[in-house]
Amino acid sequence: MTLSPFAIKWLPVLLLAVSNIFMTLAWYGHLKFKSTPLLIVIAVSWGIAFFEYCLAVPANRIGHAVWSAAELKTMQEVITLIVFAGFSVVVLKEPLGWNHLGGFTLIAAGAALIFRG
User: What is the pLDDT of residues 84-95, one digit of tens each?
Assistant: First the structure.
């Protein structure tokens, strides 16, 4: 299967975004089920994380054709913050304060340096 240059560049971003949804659910979704035994939570989280890996590994394999490993990792971290912020507010019902937004902004500024070339 041959991918277009557009797909090689942007499919990894999409795959990383979807994989981060799975990973955020695996890492933090169990906080809504605190009465569930820890071993069950771990097993379910590993099952969810499997799907994250099924998306993240191809994202990095495909993406490395046009992005450096540092750029891919930076992209993943910024996507993680965006997904987590939404998850925190929508699912966990935890508000984001100015300090969270300020910290995320500083991280995004650092990420921008990676892509300056």
Answer: 999 999 999 999
C-alpha distances in angstroms, 10 versus 6, 45, 73?
A: 6, 28, 15
CB-CB contact of 56 with 15 (8 Å): yes
Q: For the chain, give me the number of helices (H) and strands (E)?
A: 4, 0
Determine whether 47 is exposed, middle or buried from the number of CB atoms within 10 Å of its CB (0-12, 13-18, 19+). exposed
Contact yes or no for 82/105 (Cβ under 8 A) = no
pTM confidence score: 0.88
Tokens of residue 75, six digits: 């992209």
State the amino acid at position 32 in one-letter form: K
Q: What is the pLDDT of residue 2?
A: 84
